[in-house]
Write a structure and sequence with these properties.
The complex is a heterodimer of chains A (about 130) and B (about 130). Chain A is an all-alpha fold. Chain A has five helices and no strands. With about 130 residues, chain B is α+β, with helices and mostly antiparallel strands. Classes of the chains: A mainly alpha (about 130), B alpha+beta (about 130).
């Protein structure tokens, strides 16, 4: 791989990944509640960080040649980023809901607060 | 063998969903005239049966930018287990559920070797429509 191709690939992946991280950081300011912030953060871990890992791997491939060890590290890092970030987001959002964080008032419909029509038995409720 | 093909197509589908979802989150930043997001929490009755299917499906929903699992309700004798999904950019509850059910069908095709039968899917939609009426 010659120098120009390596530099262009590293640049494309590194800068795109950084811009995605920046975009999701700004998106976290544009939304209003904890759940939406956890939600708007997922491009950073799902796409931005993998791009930066790919950029680092291409740089490593160019500077020190191919080795199975660094390929294994890159693949494990990519898989772990995707799996860990989704499980961590699940845990964060569950604990945000269970700890009673306020949910933005314009969240509509909010099925955690309002069940669909027909689920609550109106006759039974009026007896209470 | 069919599972392998379905599995590869499912992974490609998830990666494509991550790319398009990230693009939506980034491009909506430049729309200044209206509110950035329309958050909603929808209830999705599950067709996934085993723990592996439910875990994979919840993780897939969460890794897709714009959708997030907030709670899981265990099933009862009359109702299937349900996921409560927080969505940021969907137009309506129906379109949000439609996208999630399409993803679930692909996931079940991967874990079971074939897509769930159309008859059971029709029953599902009938039941959910009856619930919202």
């Amino acid at each position: 791989m010659n120098d120009v191709v390596a530099a262009v690939l590293v640049g494309i992946f590194g800068i795109t990944g950084s811009l995605i991280m920046l975009a999701s950081a700004i998106a976290m300011f544009r939304v209003r509640d904890a759940l939406s912030r956890i939600n708007a953060f997922s491009p950073a871990t799902g796409l931005g960080m993998p791009f930066i890992v790919i950029a680092a791997y291409v740089y490593d491939l160019h500077s020190s040649g191919f080795s199975w060890g660094s390929l294994l590290m890159a693949v494990v890092a990519l898989l772990c980023l995707i799996i860990v970030s989704s499980v961590a987001s699940n845990t964060l959002s569950r604990s945000a809901v269970l700890s009673g964080q306020p949910i933005h008032r314009k969240t509509s419909p909010n099925r955690l607060a309002q069940p669909p029509a027909g689920v609550i038995d109106e006759a039974e409720r009026s007896e209470d | 063998m069919m599972r392998l093909i379905h599995g590869i197509s499912y992974v490609a589908y998830i990666l494509w969903a991550i790319v398009t979802g990230s693009f939506t989150i980034a491009s909506r930043l430049f729309v200044l005239r209206e509110a950035y997001a329309r958050p909603m929490i929808v209830e999705l009755p599950l067709r996934c049966a085993t723990d592996l299917e439910v875990t994979l499906f919840a993780s897939s929903i969460t890794i897709t930018p714009g959708t997030l699992v907030t709670a899981i309700a265990s099933g009862t004798a009359t109702q299937p287990p349900a996921l409560f999904v927080h969505a940021l950019f969907e137009d309506s509850e129906e379109s949000a559920l439609e996208g999630l059910i399409a993803m679930e069908s692909r996931l079940l095709a991967m874990t079971r070797g074939r897509a769930p039968r159309a008859a059971s899917r029709d029953l599902e939609t009938d039941a959910s429509e009856g619930g919202t009426r």
